[in-house]
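B., you asked whether I could sanity-check this one before it goes into the benchmark set. Here's the sequence:
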Amino acid sequence: QVQLVESGGGSVQAGDSLRLSCAASGRTLSGYSIGWFRQAPGKEREFVAAISWSGGGTYYADSVKGRFTISRDNAKKTVYLEMNSLRREDTGVYYCAASYRGTGYDAWGQGTQVTVPS
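And here's what the prediction gave me:
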């Protein structure tokens, strides 16, 4: 089982940028696709972005397309989420999760808070 730890969250102004990191431990990331999700206060957790285990496939929610970029460094066992042009509605707790060969996201990190004040 892979363990995940997110970092890089914080409070920034609208229009600023942040880079979140998702560091894995316990085993190699080979075969794992990684997704980023977020949950705003009072709302359901929602999909933000995902990357295939090879890094060749990336997927984004429409709300972040063109502003966020997901990438991975398998040698460092780390996945990144570069977030640009942040908006108030990007506020929430951001989680990364791992899915082994498409079997579903069954390993989750503890989350990191991103706040973009109004």
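One thing to flag: The mean pLDDT is 95. Otherwise nothing jumped out at me.
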